[in-house]
Amino acid sequence: MTAAGFVPPTVVLDLDRTLIYSRAAAGAVSQDALRCVEVYRDNPQSFMTVPAMGLLERLTTRATVVPCTTRTVEQYRRVRLPLPMPRYAVAANGGTLLCDGEPDAQWHRRVRDRLRRDSAPLSEVAALFSADAGSAWMHATRLADDLFCYAVVDVAALPDDRLPRWRDAVAARGWNLSRQGRKVYLMPDGLTKMNAVDEILDRIGGSRERLFAAGDGALDIPVLAAAAGAIRPRHGELEELGWSAPSVAVTDSDGASAAEELLTWLTQQVETDSVGNNGTDSVGDIETDSVGDIETDSVGDTMDVSAHHDHPGAHAGERHYT
Questions:
Q1: Where does the chain cross the membrane (predicted)?
Q2: Fold exhibited by the domain 120-188
Q3: pLDDT (tens digit, 9 = 90+) per residue, 187-221?
Q4: What sections of the chain are H helices per DSSP?
Q5: What are the residue boundaries of the structural domains of the chain, listed by start?
């Protein structure tokens, strides 16, 4: 809350294939326009365009920006976004609430109590993947923060009956299935990004009426549908499903260019909202190719979540299983 009692609007941003992209997923953008925001095993992993970085910086001066991802805490901490450490972030599809970069213990207990009560154990559901562990199309299986599991598959070789079979099997156990690219997620029904977002809104005095969001996958639907305004890129799982909702816009572009478009749209929504709710910002034109004074090789002002890797409160992250 500001000194005048004004609570800025809240913007919830999915990360992969919404805000950040692999080179392969970036699409028809110049490689020179991409800047690395994640390194994994000494290899550049994820990127943003320079205009998108400038737009994100602008957005963070006008709203409470909440990174919101299905990534584990460890995976999330590899990402370096061009913004200060967020006050709140959501990892593990809502399973972990990060406060100033650290997992919130109270939320941790509440989530696990709910999952124990409402869903079958993770080990029981993960066994569905284990049964196919020797198949050529099953490249890897993972347990994520001991909350859910996912498999990395060869989509072209995946048998036609597998997804429907897994979906039916987990539905009877209080779980659901989502496929995003090569990854097939099995997720407890009670583990949602929206639950964590509602908790954040309660803590900051925000509301769904002033919530804006962006995401590309089925796991983003609860947040997109609950927001006063939301936008999705013209690619990804939701595009494949043909999913739409009255309050959800769709970008004209796909790939990394979609991030520029959706950040422009979100900033316009936020600036209009702030004026209507007695904020101090004025509505103006947004130049998507203007990035101010971003130094492409400088990370001094970026969010460096990697600095918290060794904190004893962090989860162990993903692990292999068979």
A1: none
A2: Hypothetical Protein Ta0175; Chain: A, domain 2 (3.90.1070)
A3: 999 999 999 999 999 999 999 999 999 999 999 99
A4: 23-26, 50-60, 73-76, 105-118, 122-130, 162-171, 193-204, 221-226, 237-241, 256-276
A5: 13-111+191-308, 120-188
